[in-house]
């Protein structure tokens, strides 16, 4: 089974068969099956047991839409409050980060945790976007539209098979992601010692780097879709949709931040 770049999806089950999926082969697939024997330890995300409904594409879409909706509403309210609530961005990020660690390490499908994460990250992004919106009117909404556009575009790419998620593709993307992280850390350390690498300065190099990061985040969505597809085919219980929604939200948050950053570069005088 291929490994997703998203830590929330790295332990999803594999398997054949399935139910309604993201898949490109044969459209909607019926006859949900149990989890693969390799995952027979039956932790919280074991096979759909007696009386449990197996996961479907509708479950994933609905739970992801709810999570994204919570984040958008929380972000919009925070952004509309203006600079007065900008200070809340950092505490909200910390709360969101802590919750994300809990969800990932416990593999929790608790909707309260997932929605709290979405709300916290929405507030954090809203605080940042609200400040930037004061300098660049409309930038928050533009970044939102851009993020939605990338999400829909990559979903179309996945469903049509224009880019196939193969082991080679996964290795390439993981290498690109590691490279991006290394450069970010190097730039941060350089700034601490007065050596600016120019990756976040707003100049031409920063614009190019931001485009690369957006590309890596966008292609990461393909791995997320593929791993969600495998969970559906493996017959995971319906409640697992919340965990998948959380995984998708982590990628979307990253994507929104980087698109917001790029737009701020492009609109500088």
Automatic annotation (TrEMBL):
Any Pfam family? BaxI_1
Q: Where are the transmembrane segments?
A: 60-80, 86-105, 112-133, 139-160, 172-193, 205-228, 240-257
Q: Which UniProt keywords apply?
A: Membrane, Transmembrane, Transmembrane helix
This protein's superkingdom?
Answer: Bacteria
Spell out the protein name for this chain.
Answer: Membrane protein
Q: What is the lineage of its organism?
A: Bacteria, Bacillati, Actinomycetota, Actinomycetes, Pseudonocardiales
């Amino acid at each position: 089974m291929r490994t997703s770049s998203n830590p929330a999806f790295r332990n999803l089950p594999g398997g054949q068969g399935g139910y309604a999926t993201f898949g490109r082969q044969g459209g909607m697939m019926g006859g949900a099956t149990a989890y693969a024997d390799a995952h027979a330890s039956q932790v919280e995300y074991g096979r759909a047991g007696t009386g449990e409904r197996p996961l479907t594409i509708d479950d994933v879409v609905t739970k992801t839409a709810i999570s994204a909706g919570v984040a958008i509403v929380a972000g919009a309210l925070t952004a509309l409050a203006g600079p007065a609530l900008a200070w809340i961005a950092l505490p909200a990020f910390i709360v969101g980060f802590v919750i994300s660690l809990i969800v990932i390490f416990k593999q929790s499908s608790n909707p309260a945790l997932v929605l709290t994460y979405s709300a916290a990250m929405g507030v954090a992004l809203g605080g940042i976007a609200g400040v930037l919106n004061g300098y660049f009117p409309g930038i928050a909404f533009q970044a939102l539209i851009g993020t939605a556009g990338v999400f829909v575009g990559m979903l179309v790419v996945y469903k049509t098979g224009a880019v196939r998620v193969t082991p080679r593709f996964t290795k390439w993307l993981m290498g690109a992601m590691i490279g991006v992280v290394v450069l970010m850390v190097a730039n941060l350390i350089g700034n601490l010692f007065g050596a600016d690498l120019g990756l976040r300065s707003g100049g031409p190099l920063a614009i190019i780097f931001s485009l690369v990061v957006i590309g890596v985040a966008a292609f990461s969505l393909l791995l997320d879709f593929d791993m969600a597809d495998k969970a559906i085919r493996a017959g995971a219980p319906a409640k697992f949709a919340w965990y998948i929604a959380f995984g998708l939200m982590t990628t979307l948050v990253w994507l929104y931040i980087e698109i917001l950053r790029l737009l701020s570069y492009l609109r500088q005088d």
